Write the structure tokens for this entry.
Amino acid sequence: MLNKIMKLGGKKFNKSDQDNTSGVNTVVRSSRPTTAAAPPSSTGESQSAAPSPSQTPNHPMFTAPPSLEVLPLLKDVSSSDRPLLFMKKAHMCSCQCDFSDSLIMPREKEIKRQTLLELVDFLHSSSGKVNETMQSELIRMVSANMFRCLPPAHYENTGAPPEGNDPEEEEPYLEPWWPHLQLVYELLLRYVVSSEIEPKTAKKFINHTFVSRLLDLFDSEDPREREYLKTVLHRIYGKFIFHRPFIRCSIYNIFYKYLYETERCVGIGELLEILGSVINGFTVPMREEHVLYLVKAILPLHKSKGISIFHQQLSYCVVQFVEKDYKLADTVIRGLLKYWPLTNCNKEVLFLGELEEVLDVTEPSEFQHCVVPLFRQIGKCLNSANFQVAERALFLWNNEHIVGLIAENKDVIFPIIFEALERNMKGHWNQAVHGLSENVRRMFMEMDTELFEECEKQHAENEAKASELLEQREMTWKRLEEAASLAAN
């Protein structure tokens, strides 16, 4: 069978063979053996260097290929010849195709796509035994296709400042060569999850450099690619235990770079989604390292301008920390108050929603530590001129767990909130806010009538003092005006 493969390898296509593609399984484009990297293509797809003889197996199949050669299907050869044929196909798929025009190289594109599909099916099948040499060639091919220069961001192309672009309104960039790239990702995913692949062997190829370059691809504008990256990285984290600290540290470094350098939020949501699953597996009590990253890397993400893109994933991570270790509730709540928005109402609504989720898993003992600064901020939200902010703050009283926490600390909370409620009752322009404020006020009264009356009395005294001070101020200004007029005369 091996002799048959070698004979077929020397056969060239004539014109009739090129017209009849149905009988062609795989094809190799001609190339010159070199160790230098090929120049980048005009399509933005990186050109990988052709493997040197030292990088490829010492076998005639891996010499510089002719213009075109036909390879049989993996299932049609004997098991002894299958490894060499697999490496030949993987080596062939390292070549790049020009996707700038659909009319360029249509036959080669289809043949490469079919070959990648065959490799995916081979890894997925029960007969897909992959030795160390095959793995090396496979990862080399995956790297040649995946690791490339990414196209610039939209604002880098248009010249517009990054802060003037709303990421939610931008149309995502879609890779033109995704039909091939998707299969490469699928091939890598099959390789990582395969039970036939031993981590001790695979770590020679899935090393720190590979993982680092994989993380760099999260900057891709194509959401389909980021979704595959998320799945692959999560599987690597689960299978390669020795890579876990490095992956966590690298993700946090990406957050630092985003916060203090680029402010480009592409891929942050997917990384937070991975991190949420990672946090769920942390042991209790929480290690000091994890708490440090919560304070230094995760909570500061709340100050981002593009938080609306990844807030759902960020909120999930924060709540996971509190669920894992209830003692972190005070740290998280004070962190939210530290980065609380002052002029962005939409962001404030997001913060109130996240605050409710955190309070829902907060223990009474930790709630007492931050009750005063927390409800001072909630009181400001109650009096917000934006009805959505005021309404969202009042909705906190619809949560039974939060109402229970408030009831246990009513002596501290009532005096802080009562004034804000009275101000809403007297002067808020929105009827819905007015009605909700009245409901909360009634709830307070039913909770502790004596304390409510005391707060009402205190509020009346404060109002009287404020009126008196206002009258004194007006009298002082009046005397100053009279003195000024007498001096002028």
The first helix runs from residue 2 to 9. Residues 40 and 47 are 5 Å apart (CA to CA). Residues 4-68 have pLDDT under 50 and may be disordered. The chain has 23 helices and no strands.
